Amino acid sequence: MLQIISALVPIFALLMIGFLARRHGFPGEGFWAPAERFTYYLLFPALLVNSLSQASLSGGESVRIVLAVLVLLAIVSGICVLLKKRLEVEFATYTSFYQGSMRFNTFVALATTSALLSSAGLVVAAIIAAVMIPVLNILCVLVFSSEKGIGSNLLPTLKALVTNPLILACFAGVLVNQLGGLPSTISATLGLLGQMALPLGLLSVGAALNLNALRSSGRVLYVSSAIKLLLFPVIAWGVAYGFQLSELASQVLIIFAAMPTATSAYILARQLGGDAPLMAAIITAQTLFAMVTLPLVLSFVG
Fold first, then answer.
1. Considering only CA atoms, which of 178, 156, 208 is closest in space to residue 40?
2. DSSP H or E segment with residue 66
3. Structural domains in the chain?
4. How confident is the model at residue 157 (pLDDT cuts 50, 70, 90)?
5. Contacts of 63 by beta carbon, 8 Å cutoff, 6+ apart
6. pTM over 0.85, yes/no
7. DSSP reduced 3-state for 183
8. How much is the mean pLDDT over the chain?
9. Contact of 275 with 96, CB cutoff 8 Å
10. Which of 89, 118, 133, 239 to pair with 66, CA 20 to 30 A apart?
11. Could you tell me if 206 and 214 are in contact, meaning their C-beta atoms sit under 8 angstroms apart?
C-alpha cells in the first residue's frame, strides 16, 4: 500500500501543480492550450508508436489481452445500458453518464503504469491502449448516434475519429512492429519525446480541472464515478483471472480500468449535443476521487 501511494504521489502532485499554476496565471493562459495540443498530437503518439514497435504482439498472451479488453468493455457497456432506464435521465445526460463510466484518461493511465511497472508495463499498456482507444471512441459515437437529430454533427465527429492522433499512433505502432521495428536512432528520438509526454500531459490534465462545474453535479456523477473508479477495476480483475493473463498484464489492465474518465469526453459531449456541463463535472470529480480510490483499488485488487 505504501509503495503504491509513494509511486502515485508524484503523479497527483503534477496534477495539482498544473491546476494551481493555471489558476494563478502561470506561465500564462496562452500556454495551456498549445501545451495540450503538443502533447496530444506529438508527444503521446510518439510514446505509443515507440512502445508498440517494441511490443511482443505474437503468441497467446497478446491475443488474450485483446480479448480480455473487448470482453471487459462489453460487460461494463452492458451495465451502463441496463442502468439507463433506472436513472430516468434525458438522453444528453445519459451520454455524459456513459462516457464517464467507460472512458479512461490516457495521460494518467500511462503515467501510473510507468511509475508502478516501469518500461515493461508501458509495453503492455501500449497494447491495451491500442485496443481501448479506438473501441471506446467508436462505442461513444454509437451511443450518441442512437439518438435522432445529430446527423449534422455526426460526420465531422466520425472524421475526427478516424484522424484521432492516438488511434493513428496505435495503428502505426502495430504496423511498424510487424515490419520489424524502428531503427535505433528513430526509436531513441521517439523515446525522448515520450519521456516529455507524461509530465506535460499530467500538468495539462490538472490545468483542465474545473471546480465550478461541480456545482451542477447530481446522482449521475456519483453513479458514473462508482462504476468507473470501483466497479470497472473489480470486473477487470475478474476478466484478467478468467483469461489467465500474466501478473504484469493483469496489473496493467486493472490500472487502465481504475482510471478517471478522459478529458476529451467534454469535447465529444459539446460536439454531439451531450450534457457538456455535467461531463465537465464528472471529469473533475473523478480525477479528484481517483486520488483516493486509485491507491485503494490497486492495493486490494491489483
1. 208
2. helix 60-87
3. 2-300 (1.20.1530.20)
4. low
5. none
6. yes
7. coil
8. 89
9. yes
10. 118
11. no
